[in-house]
Specification:
By secondary structure, the chain is α/β, with parallel strands linked by helices. It is built from five helices and six strands, in the order ββαββααβααβ.
């Protein structure tokens, strides 16, 4: 796990109303897969996200020139994210899409709840403690 924020704020106590957690993923297609295959996988993921309490946003985007995607997910906590991941057909998703780079933005007190997911998905963790933002989603 890579943690970027440091200093006294990096171990701050949880705020009364925690900020949302943001996960961003750079993706590419697995060998032999097409953009249509990826769109089907993203539709599956978006549907699961919409059905999971605490998940606020799943957004995929595609760059035709680089043949890569950028995905953003916004959610309340690790528990809802684990429920969301548990509802996916992961073999279908991971046989279509490669997770090239995964970035997790959350407060220091939220990191431990992700457990092995940080290593399994190769997440780079950026701590939001003491940083601007984290208010209501507009």
């Amino acid at each position: 796990m890579t943690t970027v924020a440091e200093g006294t704020d990096a171990t701050a106590a949880p705020p009364a109303e925690p900020a949302k957690i943001v996960l961003t993923v750079f993706e590419s297609l697995c060998e032999g897969k097409t953009l249509d295959d990826a769109k089907a996988a993203w539709a599956h993921v978006a549907e699961a996200s919409a059905k999971t309490p605490g998940m606020h946003r799943f957004q995929s985007s595609w760059n035709e020139e680089t043949q890569t995607a950028y995905v953003t997910e916004i959610f309340d906590n690790a528990e809802c994210y684990q429920a969301f991941i548990g509802s996916l057909d992961l073999p279908m998703v991971t046989s279509t899409i490669k997770f090239d780079s995964v970035t997790l933005q959350c407060a220091s007190h939220q990191v431990a709840a992700f457990g092995d997911m940080i290593t399994n998905f190769g997440m780079k963790v950026y701590l939001t403690d003491g940083c601007a933002g984290g208010g209501a989603i507009l």
